[in-house]
TrEMBL record, chain A:
Coiled coil: none annotated. The chain crosses the membrane at residues 20-41, 50-71, 77-94, 144-169, 175-198. It is a multi-pass membrane protein. Residues 16-195 form the ABC transmembrane type-1 domain. Its main location: membrane. This is ABC transporter permease. InterPro entries: ABC_transp_perm/SBD, MetI-like, MetI-like_sf. The keyword Membrane applies. Keywords: Membrane, Transmembrane, Transmembrane helix, Transport.
Automatic annotation (TrEMBL), chain B:
This is Quaternary amine transport ATP-binding protein. Belongs to the ABC transporter superfamily. One of its GO terms (molecular function) is ATP binding. The lineage of its organism: Bacteria, Bacillati, Bacillota, Clostridia, Eubacteriales. Residues 254-310, 313-373 form the CBS domain. The keyword DNA-binding does not apply. Keywords: ATP-binding, CBS domain, Cell inner membrane, Cell membrane, Membrane, Nucleotide-binding, Repeat, Transport. Its EC number is 7.6.2.9. Signal peptide: none annotated. It is an enzyme of class 7 (translocase). Its main location: membrane. Residues 2-236 form the ABC transporter domain.
Length: 212, 373
């Protein structure tokens, strides 16, 4: 064990760092785009009925294919990985933002409008806060997804925990596979918990189920 | 002054409001009522432009609302909806201050206003201001809903079946509160309901609508006394029934469990009986149960001696009526202060009952508000 860490310790730390970097950047980019698109789509539910299913099909394209295609155009740069991962991060947040906003009960929208709020005010003060639990749920899903998709970065030689797994698999070295998989799993669970904490802070008190 | 002029609105081919004209003076409580689909809610919502009219015009104090910015218009008209619609992400105080904040009141002023309003409905600021809507009962929530509408001191409040989702007791007390708030603050209120009890209780003017048109606009009394047509009459059901007959007889209001004594009883016995039943008079009859007069406690006190019979103490000129006498006659006698009550006698001079102030007002109440109350 200690032998392993002497050999690979520094490499492992680097890999975790790179992995985390890919995850945080791509989830952030994806989240912003998704939030924006989700809000736009929720304003035009009629169009969204057709747009969302198309997007969900895109979501099913395997990451390998996608990274491969982007690789052809962008080359072996981190941007390739980030672009691919960001696109994957979009969908869960987009879907939840959309359903969250659409799900805001008509009474609140009518009350907001009746009070004299413009649609922007209604969105910012009423609809988004009410959709927040769903949106953060989407963020959580995206993050956990991307932690596992980021493994693909090493496929085009861009590091991350995938390096350990791929080398492990190709050299039939179980220790290396586990050395890559376990931190990835911990990363996924840890980030998930972090978002849960954030959710508790961010969701207005009146919306929490345990509020009494 | 709010004025609807030839306002129409259709959804597709269906006309929901047809060429409607209506004037509402300042400070009046107007209730729009009618069967569902009669266009009352549409009429209400066209005023704050939640629904845009197709043709015609609506003006407030002479200003055409179509020429005003809709958000600005709405922030100057209070709005209360049936589903309450308090924002669950905001505290009570934040909910109340929604409109003041939109109007950019400073924080201190908004807070003072919230405090003032909560006191108006006896909900202490310290207890309620920082609660969230889901921590309160439906009735408390709708009180806040009303306060939110009042917050920026709009001269006009629109209420769309605001108490429809509340239980009867809560609804009743909220009706009282809103009515008294409206009178105290001098607001113009337009109120939609399909509940005639509610309309009669709250309205200065009841506007009865059917199929997008106004069938009748009158005071509650006026609409009860003279419903414009069968649709109105039918809708009012029990309320108008008694009035249209307008023939309440004394037998409808009398109390039949009358305290009676025969004239050979002794004074002490009668005084005891009165004090036991907490009354100050007894109806005196002979052996055949025929009416002789009334024994009043004052007479016994003035002239009675212990042990005497009551025969000489009877008041014989007490007002009496027959069961068929119109109730109004009895009402006139009682309200003219000539007697605490009147005695109802059958044709063979037997006592059928008495009509007191209480039985009178109970009977009137059941005519005006229905038998349920």
């Amino acid at each position: 064990m200690s032998n392993f860490f002497r050999l690979y310790g520094e490499k492992l730390l680097n890999a975790i760092g790179t992995h985390l970097f890919y995850v945080l950047i791509s989830v952030s980019i994806g989240f912003v785009i998704a939030l924006f698109l989700g809000i736009l789509l929720s304003r035009v539910p009629k169009i969204s009925k057709y747009v969302l299913p198309v997007l969900s099909v895109v979501q099913t394209i395997p990451g390998i294919v996608f990274i491969g295609i982007l690789f052809l155009y962008l080359g072996m740069v981190p941007a390739t990985v980030l672009a691919a991962l960001s696109i994957y991060a979009i969908f869960p947040v987009l879907k939840n933002t959309y359903t969250g906003l659409i799900g805001v009960s008509e009474q609140y929208k009518e009350a907001a409008k009746g009070c004299g709020m413009s649609s922007l005010q209604s969105l910012l003060r009423v609809e988004l806060p009410l959709a927040l639990p769903a949106i953060i749920g989407g963020l959580r899903m995206s993050t956990v997804y991307i932690v596992s998709w980021a493994v693909l970065a090493s496929m085009i030689g861009l590091g991350g925990l995938g390096d350990f797994i791929y080398i492990g698999v190709s050299t039939n070295n179980n220790t290396l596979i586990i050395a890559g998989a376990v931190p990835a799993a911990i990363l996924a669970v840890g980030l998930g918990l972090l978002i849960d904490c954030f959710q508790k802070k961010a969701v207005p008190k009146g919306l929490r189920r345990d509020a009494k | 002054m709010i004025e609807y002029k030839n306002v129409s609105k259709s959804y597709g081919k269906q006309k929901v409001v047809k060429d409607l004209s209506l004037k509402i003076p300042d400070g009046e409580f107007v209730v729009l009522i009618g069967p569902s689909g009669c266009g009352k809610t549409t009429t209400l919502k066209m005023l704050n432009r939640l629904i845009e009219m197709d043709s015609g015009s609506i003006s407030i104090d002479g200003k055409n609302i179509m020429e005003m910015n809709p958000e600005k218009l709405r922030s100057h008209i209070g709005y209360v909806i049936q589903q309450i619609g308090l924002f669950p992400n905001m505290t009570v105080e934040e909910n109340i201050c929604v409109v003041p904040r939109l109007l950019k009141w400073d924080k201190e002023k908004s807070r003072r206003r919230a405090k003032e309003l909560l006191e108006l409905v006896n909900m202490p600021y310290e207890t309620y201001a920082h609660k969230y809507p889901n921590e309160m009962s439906g009735g408390q929530q709708q009180r806040i809903g009303v306060l939110r509408a009042l917050a920026a001191e709009p001269p006009i409040i629109l209420m769309d079946e605001p108490f429809g989702a509340l239980d009867p007791i809560t609804r009743d007390s909220l009706q009282d509160e809103v009515k008294s708030l409206q009178q105290r603050l001098g607001k113009t209120v337009i109120f939609v309901t399909h509940d005639m009890d509610e309309a009669l209780k709250m309205a200065d003017t009841v506007v009865f609508m059917s199929e997008g048109q106004i069938l009748q606009a009158d005071t509650p009394e006026g609409i009860l006394r003279a419903p414009a047509n069968d649709t109105v009459r039918e809708f009012m059901g029990k309320h108008v029934h008694n009035f249209s007959q307008n023939q309440l007889a004394c037998s409808d209001l009398m109390k039949t469990n009358v305290a009676k004594v025969t004239q050979d009883r002794k004074t002490l016995e009668c005084v005891n009986m009165m004090s036991r039943r907490e009354i100050d008079s007894l109806v005196v009859v002979d052996q055949q149960e025929r009416y002789l007069g009334v024994l009043l406690i004052e007479t016994v006190n003035e002239r009675g001696k212990a042990g005497d019979s009551i025969k000489d103490l009877i008041t014989v000129d007490f007002p009496t009526v027959t069961p068929d006498t119109p109730a109004k006659t009895a009402f006139d006698i009682i309200s003219g202060q000539r007697a605490e009550y009147v005695v109802v006698l059958t044709d063979d001079k037997k006592v059928a009952g008495i009509i007191t102030k209480t039985s009178m007002s109970k009977a009137l109440a059941s005519v005006v508000w229905g038998d349920g109350q």
